[in-house]
Amino acid sequence: TLGGLAGAGTIKADGGAGHLPFGGGAGGGRISVTYQSNSFTGTYSAKGGAGFGNGGAGTIYLRNGQFQPTFIADNAGLPGNSTPLDLNELLELRVLGGAFLTSTISSTLTVSNLTVGTNAGMSNGAFASPLRINVSGNATIAGTLSAVGSLQGTGSGAGSQFERFVLRGVG
Questions:
Q1: CA atoms of 74 and 58, how far apart (whole Å)
Q2: Could you give the residue ranges of the DSSP H alpha helices within 10-166?
Q3: What is the pLDDT of residues 76-119, one digit of tens each?
């Protein structure tokens, strides 16, 4: 926890590139900053590395004291492996630049603002409960928001695949 964060540099935890033709890129790391004041004007980066299989986006977790955190997964335009999300209350959630976020929570995700950018996606994962999101502010979906699961006893038989998600505005 910092009293204050200032500067204009770069804070990064980028994954390394894989050795081609067969090496996979490493996943991005995690940046976590809790602060009381923030005048930092630089950039944060936790992208995965390029390779035969691209690394998944790392995570950027920014928290202003007692307020809910901002959670960012941004792979800088490189489609990569999935990045897990295990938080259920956020001020802001941003999934950008080729990142694919998989929610591992079984409860409702509550956010003030949600952004799923172009070439990015968010899912509940194949075996998780339905993706439920309560958004009290703005939701901007330019990429993919999906929830896949199984529903017993409907469709062509038990365990039929279906897609569903619940996106609710609050307020």
A1: 7
A2: none
A3: 999 999 999 988 899 999 999 999 999 888 778 889 999 999 89
